[in-house]
# Entry
Amino acid sequence: ASISAIWPRLRSTETRSRPCRAGSLPDPGLPTSAPERSVPAEFSVVPPESKQRREADAGIECIGCGVCYASCDIVAWNPDYLGPAAMNRAWTLVNDVRDGARAERLEAVSGDAGCHSCHSTQSCTERCPKNLDPSSAIAGLKRTLFWDSLWGRLR
# Structure
């Protein structure tokens, strides 16, 4: 697969964070490490010890080199497959409570070219120069889609 094909896939999962609308930020009662009133009210503080923060941190160091994409067998078989880099980024943002596009991201990775096409061969994880684990990110997207579907949170 051509490495240049990674960029449209990254764009399709909208790799930039979209801030939550006012009033939809996480519970201000969450414990934070920031001193009271040191962060403006419109900012959302994500506690470093939270599960979502740990999940997001696991993939945030991606440098976008495309090694995972180039090593992915599914990319070779299915030219429409989003690939591990795009889904790793989607997983990072799905777990960022400050992001307001969670539903749209999950919709982008739920189709035939999304996370369910991954066969978990782990070649992306094995070859990542940053020792990230895109396979786990893809598995996380699968779990999230399952639970959101079960509980009726998807459109």
In short: The two ends are 33 Å apart (CA to CA).
